[in-house]
Amino acid sequence: MKELIARSLKYQNGMVQVLDQYLLPHQETWHHCENVEQMKSLILALKVRGAPLIGLAASLLVAYLAEQGSSKAQLNDAIDELTATRPTAVNLMHCMARLREALQQPEYAQAVVTEAERLFEEDCALCDRMATFGAELVESGDNILTHCNTGALATAGVGTALGVIHHAARQHSNIHIWVDETRPLLQGGRLTAYELAQWQIPYTLICDNMAASLMAAGKVDKIFVGADRIAVNGDFANKVGTYNLAVLAHYHQIPFYVVAPVTTLDSSCASGQDIPIEQRAETEVTGVSGSFGSCQWAPEQAEVYNPAFDVTPAALITAWVLDTGVYYPQQVAAGVLGTV
Ligand code: MRU
Q1: Are strands 176-180 and 143-146 parallel, antiparallel or unpaired?
Q2: pTM score, two decimals?
Q3: Which of 74, 146, 204, 251 is most buried, with most CB under 10 Å away?
Q4: Which residues of this protein are catalytic (predicted)?
């Protein structure tokens, strides 16, 4: 496999390497990954996270195993196991389907490697196109709110929603970002704040429950978020808390944009009701843990509900920013997302 280098994933010196996103921003630790069990646990622990990145990391591992001489049956099993790690992010299923297709070729090992390389390079190009289209929606002086982490850490390129912010900040020197901390795992507070600081884009970190009062005070001009899966009718799943923002934005008449590559569209989901939502461990809600240590604040026996994602209905979305262009509600209602 050729050398492939992204912000949090690389294939270098014959090894698949991932940046541990659970330890960021205080510690930059890279893990080598040589087998399915390792990759599964990295993904399940959200050390490897973000819809596009999960698919690409799993793909590089399958390609590495193909290069190491794994049989067709072993590669098929690896694809099955990796596909099952996170149920909502459809980019993973998309990548695994492309590799399964490559496995049908007579020279299957080389075909899998070539396909994994393509997926990686395509993702960089998809990010750039989304960022370019999305940046046109941003105006000088905008205060933009974003949720979770959708930047270079979550993709092979510049990111989805945060990629738009990156490109917009290069065009307008005076934009400012409100960063939702994004409970329970704090992808905003830990990762988005870290990326914006590195990009030298001015930001202010807020707790998730502060967004309403900021909107009421006229301090939010636009909202950009990413997606883990978009249904044909335009409903989409993203990090839990996204739906809250969409409802608030609608009430306050603030434009609400979702940014995603075509690999996030799922033509088998007619609406958001068809999107499976991942449920995660209770410990993520009863306390917090990370590079700083861990602490539990809830009573031992507390009942917990912990869906990792929620679904935002199409009716609350101003426009869908894809790598193929910006789509508005009339086009989406006419079924355009089923054809791009
Ligand atoms: O659970 P995570 O951290 O993988 O969730 C990530 C998100 O919800 C992102 O918004 C989404 O994957 C788009 S990332 C480009």
Answers
A1: parallel
A2: 0.97
A3: 146
A4: 228 (proton donor)
